[in-house]
Amino acid sequence: MKYFYVIVSGRIKISQINPDTGREFAFLLLGPGDVFDVICLVDDQEHLVQIDILEDVQILYIFMREVRFWIQNHADFNKTLC
Length: 82
Fold this sequence. Notes:
It is built from 3 helices and 6 strands. With 82 residues, it is of the alpha+beta class. It has a 3-stranded antiparallel sheet with strand order 4-1-6.
């Protein structure tokens, strides 16, 4: 909830575990150029996910408050995320 992430290189898998069944549901496979924690950016709520690194990863990160500022004040940046 504190940072917004951009994958520079490598791949990650984002999944959730069903607390009732213990089964894993993988819902995102991300690679270079992909971003994550977009939902936290929008709703400012914590989302419990498991992140598995599939390859060596390089990630850029920025404070959520900075990304929110850019979304509110720079229309071109906002269009990039949509």
